[in-house]
Design brief:
Elements lengths: L5 H18 L8 H22 L3 H15 L1
Length: 72
């Protein structure tokens, strides 16, 4: 798959959805374990965006999926 393909857009959308979900979380109210999960999801989103820039769609999709699962 090439950058700009439908898959690329889908991964970007999935990363954006996970980021939006995290914005609705009150980080201060989270337990230590949940804060760690929140931070992990944020890191997956960042790494997913970086993987997209590097045209590594498979890795980006994996990170987007994991971030989405945690953020939900």
């Amino acid at each position: 798959m090439q950058p700009g393909d439908r898959g690329d857009a889908a991964v970007r959308q999935q990363l954006a959805k996970a980021a939006d979900d995290l914005q609705n979380v009150n980080y201060v109210a989270l337990s230590t374990d949940l804060k760690a999960q929140y931070d992990t999801a944020k890191r997956f989103i960042t790494l997913g965006g970086q993987a997209l820039k590097e045209q590594n769609l498979v890795f980006a999709a994996t990170l987007a999926e994991k971030a989405g699962a945690i953020a939900t």
